[in-house]
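Continued from yesterday's entry.
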Amino acid sequence: MSDDLRFPTYESIGIRPLINCVGTLTILSGSRILPEVQQAMVEASNRYVQIDELMEAVGARIAEVMQCEWGLITCGCAAAMTQVTAACVAGTDREKMNRLPDTTGMKNEVIVQANHRQGYDLAVQAVGVHFVEVTTKADLEAAINEHTAMLLIFGDAAERGEISVAEMAEIGHTHDIPSFVDAAAERPDVPNWYLEQGVDAVAYSGGKCLRGPQASGLVLGRKKLLQTAFANGAPHHSLGRPMKAGKEEIMGLLAAVEQWVERDHEAEWREWGRRLEVISEAVTQFPSVTTPIRQPGRSNVAPHMSIQWDADQLGIAPPEVKRQLSEGDPRIEVSGGEDGLTINPYMMEENEERIVARRLMQILGSV
């Protein structure tokens, strides 16, 4: 490589990088990719391959590592939602595939529990389907008809609905209708809990817990369904053609999957706890400040620490502290509102907890 090589940096174009105390949000650029992922992407970029052959081999390798029937890599979890839905609607019928999102004469209904609706639904609706909302098992059974293409489950709401994941999957199997889970920010643990419940496919973001390429998604499930989803995506001329996962993303995410089963997740959790302790010790020196720990839900699985205080006693409210953290140098992003701030240590890097602790002490002590 030439010593004269030049490349742009965030700073060179006027962008301020940040310390991420929020989580794996796409708007905050997801997670930081692992060194092994970086290496795999660089190596993949240096040679050419036939993409159909590559995806077939990677699918088999993912199945081996993740102990499932098959794996598919897409251009993000939302792309996975579109491609799997297209597979359920059009299959591999070229005439139907070419007509999407016109679903006239096709199966074009997706059944979902009412409290599983969320903003990512648009990735499913892009195929040309419409949602049928249900609440109870009786509702679900009554809603199924010849137009039903898929049963959709939102992982974050999996334990809130009246119909369990296992019940959704079982009813789907009874009627030969695939069940599909959006589990974007969840942990793709081995063995996979959703697949054990009987669902046909479950999708994850490649750029969140896995720490793979940000523009990648991982789908685990039935081989035939996932291969059909691939047929409805790039490099094939189908509805999902714009959702291209290149050789770099494919090999990078494969590296992340292989690292997932090698990483010491217990050690990671201990490190997150240590980072929170550093921040807690700093801020609890101030009157009325408390730092309760909240255990996570299904997504962004890490301990979350709330920082709460009496704004009248300290003379500064949480929104103002949040603003100063964001506008300061270095830029620090946290979540929270009028009641306090929340620190998620998941995306913080080594020694950043000390920077966050120092800035909080400066801000809280300045009034």
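--- second protein ---
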Amino acid sequence: MTDLKVAIVTGSGQGIGRGCAIELAHAGFKVSLMSPSDRSVKLAAELGGIGRKGSVLDNDDLKALVDSTMEAYGRIDAVVTNMGHGGGVPEAIKTVGFDPDFDGPLLELPDDLWHESLDMYVMSVVRTARLVTPIMIEQGGGAFVNLSSMNTIEPRAPYPMSMLRGALHSFGKMYGDRYARYNIRMNSLMPGFCENVNLSPQARRSIPANRPALFSEIGKICAFLASEDAAYVNGQNILADGGMNRAVR
């Protein structure tokens, strides 16, 4: 058995993805990072890992990420799929915070935005799983952690594309059921507002914790889900929003 643990993190150049990469490195993982900018390359150098520029929307970039990781380390123990919000988002839905009276567009959203968001939130994970699952089967196991959103289970008008993450959650459950026999797990992590958000007073009051999450806090949950400590957590959607969502599931 090897003591080497290796984690891929996409969208790791900044924000939550960066926080996850740092906490995974602190937990003993060698990290292989990718983002559309060179920030992931610089962060990987700081963390003693490898990095590259690329997009989760490009299957060639995903394959190159997997291939370079295997070339460098010979295994992949965890994959953290983090993705942005996509391009071309109408200004009307870039509102920061939560306004219950917000009346944003819905039927006016163009088809290409729906398709791009589906590719971003769902198909990028499906494509990554296709590439990595055979590797994890051969090595005897692994874990996927998909970064999702608190808005998936309580839809909010300013963030309509988050409804598509519901498909991601269903995929994660079906994947977890199918590949648990190979000791492979898939879970989704649903952060609330994080430290990069300039919260309105109303939005801050709606959070029982009365503050946004630190990237490191989300990263620590991610590192736990990627670790053997979470070996019996599979096909789940983990909410980390400071108590903002009101639904009891």
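The chain has one domain: 5-240. Confidence is low (pLDDT under 50) at residues 86-95. Will compare against the first tomorrow.
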